[in-house]
Design brief:
Helix content is about 35%, strand content about 20%. It has 19 helices and 20 strands. It binds NADP nicotinamide-adenine-dinucleotide phosphate.
């Protein structure tokens, strides 16, 4: 440890206790020191806790004077220095001694925290760790970029080393890995930061704070992620309300595959915030439907939304299913009550609500285009209100089957240009982004007073544009999306949903995309 000893003595920097650390740590990584500092300048405008990934620098030691200058001008910042060796998943090619020496110099440059990998800490030995801890608070970290495995062994190894925070990060392959990692390390002698990498591990990046991690990592901005599955600061603060998550926070989520681009987290978290409900709604990307249910049993989950392709798969696995959802043959909402899981279909309310805001449905003549999941919700819902429903589908046999089951009628495409309806409900993906020029019907086939397109991306579909030209009253798919989400909110919380706020949150996101 000659290099470490060679670092001139330095007053111990101000200690920041783990419990006083900000909840988000933003990594800053660049090959050149000037670039790293420029990134840090930008990140520091909205974040007070930065991790300097010195191992990304082509010459880590040479970057330290710039770091010192930067931190001296910003005493309010909390800086964590990392110079991770290649075999621990970083870019540093020097020895463990050199790694420790750089971290000691980083402490001297103003970093209050340093991160040393478990492998390096074991090699460095107790005396070196003691010297490092005299200069800065020490986090000893373990990363497994391949899988979630050997958790107990890692805990044993960490336990024998002195640190101010322990960190364990594993690559998640499936949702249940989140549960293992969130439970990991609770008995370690210092606080632990534990979460999973990868898309399947995303829930743990948020729920880590609920499980006791003092902080979680976030990219400074979209596109600046340093690890797979990392959220950016804006998403964690504005959507997931990371500052407010605590042990009492109820957890909800959306499961399906894929769910990464779902707008449900934005919509439901907006609703929780507006209605002052201590809850968070996270993506739960499942490989199969039962995986979501197994996770729900393990996590303090209050309920979850189900999106494609699992809306039918869970019907039989639940303790109870609402009668209308059973008729429709699909569920999109699960609620947990006294340890049991119950299923609902709020797509029905998502279709009936916007229509009933405009007209009574009894005896109305309605054309439903499509015979898939959304069409089934429309047909059974409309029939339950006494509407006269006609189904037209690309595959006529499916239309006939649905009509038989729901007491509806079928109509052939060639008859549409000469048949009038009160309402038209479009329930196929035609016109969905990116094929936004497509319309399921020619203009002369649109013969209804109200046209409801369930597609909501784009907001104004080609079908709605044509319907408007024909003088019809139009309803966008966004209204359905918000109405089905609002119904979920009400099932879960028993409170009236803040529909306006939910609508505007999703609308502005869609408009900005
Ligand atoms: P689905 O179960 O896969 O059903 C798709 C239906 O569309 C089937 O009837 C299918 O006909 C028909 N279809 C597919 N491609 C077609 C094409 N090129 N031309 C004519 N018909 C075609 O899907 P889903 O869950 O019902 O969803 C349908 C659409 O509803 C989605 O794309 C989505 O935009 C919208 N939706 C919106 C919300 C919301 O909240 N706003 C919620 C759910 C769904 P075949 O029987 O011949 O295959």
């Amino acid at each position: 440890m000659a290099l470490l000893a060679a670092v001139s003595s330095n007053p111990v920097p101000n200690r920041v206790l783990p419990e006083h650390l900000p909840r988000l740590c933003v990594p800053v990584a660049a090959a050149q020191a000037g670039e790293m500092i420029a990134l840090a300048e930008r990140a520091a405008r909205s974040n007070s806790f930065l991790e300097f990934r010195l191992d990304h620098l082509s010459q880590p030691a040479a970057g330290l004077p710039k770091l010192r200058e930067f931190l001296a001008a910003r005493p309010e910042l909390i800086a964590l220095a990392t110079c991770r060796k290649k075999q621990s998943g970083g870019y540093f090619r020097g020895s463990v001694e050199a790694e420790c020496a750089i971290l000691a110099k980083a402490a001297q440059a103003g970093c209050q925290w340093v991160d040393l990998s478990l492998e390096s800490a074991e090699r460095a030995g107790m005396a070196a760790l003691k010297q490092l801890r005299a200069r800065a608070s020490l986090m000893i970290s373990y990363h497994d970029y391949g899988a979630t495995r050997h958790l107990a062994a890692v805990e044993r190894r960490l336990r024998s080393l002195p640190a101010d925070i322990y960190k364990g990060v594993w690559q998640a392959k499936r949702l249940e890995d989140n549960v293992k990692v969130l439970r990991w390390g609770a008995d370690l002698p210092a606080p632990r930061v534990a979460f999973c990498m990868g898309e399947a591990g995303q829930p743990s990046r948020i729920l880590a704070l609920q499980a006791g991690s003092p902080f979680t990592y976030a990219a400074a901005m979209e596109g600046a992620e340093t690890a797979e599955g990392q959220f950016d600061v804006a998403a964690l603060q504005r959507i997931y309300r990371i500052e407010e998550i605590n042990r009492a926070t109820r957890v909800y989520g959306v499961t399906g595959h894929p769910v990464a681009h779902s707008l449900s987290p934005l919509m439901l978290n907006t609703a929780f915030r507006r209605a002052s409900v201590n809850a968070v709604y996270v993506p739960l990307p499942a490989r199969h439907a039962e995986e979501a249910l197994a996770l729900a049993a393990e996590l303090p989950l209050g309920g979850f939304s189900i999106t494609l392709p699992y809306k039918t798969a869970l019907l039989r696995a639940l303790d109870g299913v609402d009668a209308l959802a059973r008729q429709v043959g699909a569920i999109n909402t699960v609620v947990r009550s006294a340890g049991k899981f119950y299923g609902y279909n709020t797509d029905v309310a998502g279709i009936l609500g916007p229509l009933e805001n405009r007209t009574a449905l009894e005896r109305k003549k309605v054309l439903v285009l499509g015979a898939g999941g959304a069409a089934r919700a429309a047909v059974f819902g409309l029939r339950s209100r006494g509407a006269d429903v006609h189904i037209c589908n690309r595959t006529p046999a499916r239309a006939r089957q649905l009509a038989r089951a729901a007491g509806a009628k079928t109509i052939l495409r060639r008859e549409l240009a000469k048949t009038d309806f009160d309402i038209l409900v479009h329930a196929t993906p035609v016109g969905l982004f990116p094929k936004v020029r497509q319309s399921p019907l020619a203009t002369e086939e649109i013969r209804a007073g109200i046209v409801f397109d369930l597609v909501y991306n784009p907001l104004e579909t080609e079908l709605l544009r044509r319907a408007r030209q024909r003088g019809a009253q139009v309803i966008t798919g966004l209204e359905m999306f918000v109405a089905q989400g609002a119904e979920q909110f009400e099932i879960w919380t028993g409170k009236p949903a803040p529909r306006q706020e939910m609508y505007h949150a999703v609308l502005s996101e869609l408009q900005s995309r």
